[in-house]
Amino acid sequence: MDLKKAKKRIEVLKREIEKYRYAYHVLNQSLIPDEALDSLKKELYDLEQKFPQLITPDSPTQRVSGKPLKFFKKVVHKTPMISLNDAFLKEDIKDWYERIKKLIPTEKKLDFYCEYKFDGLAISLEYEKGILKVGSTRGDGKIGEDVTQNLKTIEAIPLRLKKDINIEVRGEVLLTKEEFKRINKEQIKKGLSAYANPRNVAAGSIRQLDPKVTASRKLDFYAYDLIGDFNLKTHEEKHQFLREMGLKVHSGNRRAENLEEIFAFHEKVSKERERLPFEIDGIVVIVNDIQLFEKLGVVGKAPRGAIAYKFSPKETTTIVEDIKIQVGRTGVLTPVAILRPVEVGGVTISRATLHNKEEIKRLGLKIKDTVIISRAGDVIPKIEKVLKNLRTGEEKEFRMPEVCPVCGRKVVEDEGGIILRCLNKNCPARQLEHFYHFVSKGAFDIKGVGPKIINRFIDEGLIQDISDLFDLKEGDIAPLERYGEKSSQNIIKAIQSSKNITLNRFIYALGIPHIGEENAILLAEYFEEKNNNKEIRISDLIKIGASLKEEELNKVKTIGPKIASSIVNWFKEKKNIEFLKKLEAKGINIIPVVSRKEKGKLKGLTLVLTGTLISMSRDEAKKRIKEEGGEVSETVSRKTDFVVVGENPGSKLKKALELKIKTLNEQEFLKMI
After folding, report:
1. What's the gap between Cα 117 and its chain centre?
2. Which CATH superfamily hosts domain 315-421?
3. Terminus of the chain with fewer CB atoms < 10 Å: N or C?
4. What crossing angle do the helices spanning 538-546 and 517-530 adopt, rounded to 10°?
């Protein structure tokens, strides 16, 4: 093949290889098998070796070329590569919006362009007549380093644009999560330490003096801005122009008409985050109108017209306020760090398990230490590191107890001295029936919190006694296996809404021996009378309980000597009073019981229920009747005042009609109560 034919063939090969590169990296389309593409590249390489005078800077063979550099040259950015201010909350974005709105003409429409905020390395690409001439790092924003050779190794970066224009492109070099895993596997095989995150590897790869090392890392690239006047009116048009020039732009970026659309985009991307092939740490929100963006100018080192709306961090710092011991169902003592509440990974975290005394020793942790806490994806919160340089001298050493903090019995070492265990089978921490009763119907009735969840919370160190339920945050529950964001929100909502409780249900929840739902109502009425029918608080209940006398309680209907003794003795127990005080400190608010003697709308009436009610369950209907002073009977007799008839009533309706007892449909019953 002569020079003329070689030149023609080389040009054809370059165009074809570029077409396949563009399809694969920009359009996400694979037009030919990788092996076929490799064959075309090999043919091009062989021709260029035969005719080296035909080698050009935009040839695909030049992606890895030249000898390793001794150092990087400095590059002055004609337009500074400025950074962005951060926002983490909706309020931050609203404040930013209000600030910029004051600086633009009122008649101008303000819309935005929202982009994925890549967690990689920002770079600049300078093209002359469509050919890549200089690629550089951001550096200090004004001066970067010339890393052109290394950037040429990235297939997603075109060596030649679709048009022969002079242009500067800004974008981000990334490493995919899969490639990061592969590189770390190789590191470990070599006996070297694993890299911390993809961003560090991407940055380190670009600053390799040998481009062959960079090429081995399989880096990726996305363009997000261009410098220069191309008669474009919006940032959205910039992205379209970049795409037309053959540059890779993320297809998920969107225009937003208003704040609500910004928030919706942020939420959508946040949910996608873990499934994306690369790391992102938020979105970038930019004033779409280029003239308005430029008019807003720069304040400090950041443009007024753009902001980084970041996700909740996966790692952050907080203070260990205390370390408490959790005694599990098997008697194992587990230290739990009580944290100053902090948002991590989108949820508020208030505690983290420390597993055992060896973990505390490994961390060198003290109470009041500042720590780094992490929660990536759905991982359980973990204390990663103690920031010992931030100690003030007020920190306290923590030692595992020698006795069980619940029952006071001496604990024993287990499993090589790492695990401590309480062997007392009667230890209250190992008695779960009270926990189950407390959250059950008729008591606090916490929806969605049953025995299985209580067991899990105890095993995970989230609760020591039942009052700890009211301290839980979404972030304490969400990381547990099979508990997502939605279910944790529902559980916390149910727990918090149960804080307002009628006095009779509160008394029933305490689990006083021999006090069922009916006696709890009578006892509540008695307590209210003792409190002169004023609003009763838990502290009032403690005072009344301390003054109770069995002979007085005996006068209350259905409360005999045995039950009276049980009530008096319960209020004498110190641990019970401490428990009441804990509940008061958690914000439990007692609502007065509706007295059947004076206040009830159904005072002196007996009702029978038959059929299915739509608006409430049978148990709820019974409870409402009792709260309104009525009696519920299971059989219809001449003493029955009303029969409440739901869907598919049974034989009780027939009996009511025979005895000419007045019937109520569901709407009439609801109106009555």
Report:
1. 19
2. Nucleic acid-binding proteins (2.40.50.140)
3. N
4. 90
CA gap 37, 16 in Å, rounded: 9
446: which residues sit within 8 A by CB, 6+ positions away?
Answer: 439, 469, 494, 495, 498
For residue 126, the tally of other CB atoms under 10 A from its CB is: 19
**Is CATH 3.40.50.10190 what the domain over 606-672 is classified as, yes or no?**
yes
- The Cβ of residue 480 has, within 10 Å, a number of other Cβ atoms equal to 18
Q: What is the mean pLDDT of residues 197-215?
A: 82
Beta bridge partners of 607: 632, 642
Q: Can you say how many angstroms the Cα of residue 234 is from the centroid of all Cα atoms in its chain?
A: 34
CATH architecture of 86-310: 2-Layer Sandwich (3.30)
Q: Would you call 385 a catalytic residue per the annotation?
A: no
- Residues 215-222 have a mean pLDDT of 88
**Residues 156/243, Cβ–Cβ less than 8 Å:** no
| Beta-carbon count within 10 A of 573 CB | 10
Residues 6+ apart with CB under 8 A from 247: 26, 158, 161, 169, 171, 223
Contact 309, 262 (CB under 8 A): yes
SS3 content of the chain, % helix, strand, coil (to 5): 40, 20, 40
500-591 is classed in which CATH architecture? Answer: Orthogonal Bundle (1.10)
DSSP 8-class letter at 380: P
Instruction: Give 569's contacts (C-beta < 8 A, 6+ positions apart).
Output: none
Q: What phi-psi label fits residue 228: left (phi over 0), alpha (psi between -120 and 50 degrees) or beta?
A: left
CA–CA distance, 128 with 126 (Å, rounded to integer): 7
Rounded distance, CA 272 to CA 142, Å?
Answer: 34
The predicted model scores a pTM of 0.52
Residues 6+ apart with CB under 8 A from 577: 542, 545, 571
Question: How far is C-alpha 393 from the geometric centre of its chain's CA atoms?
Answer: 33
What does the pLDDT read at residue 364?
Answer: 93
**Options 14, 117, 238, 473, the catalytic residue:** 117
Tell me which CATH homologous superfamily contains domain 3-63. Helix hairpin bin (1.10.287.610)
More confident residue, 143 or 513: 143
Strands (E), 524-594: 589-591
The token duo for 395 is 């920190």
**Ranges of each domain in the chain:** 3-63, 86-310, 315-421, 500-591, 606-672
Q: Is 643 helix (H, G, I), strand (E, B) or coil?
A: strand
SS3 state at 283: strand
Domain 86-310 identical in fold to domain 500-591: no
- Taking only the tens place, the pLDDT of each residue in 101-144 is 888 877 778 999 999 999 888 999 999 999 999 999 988 788 88
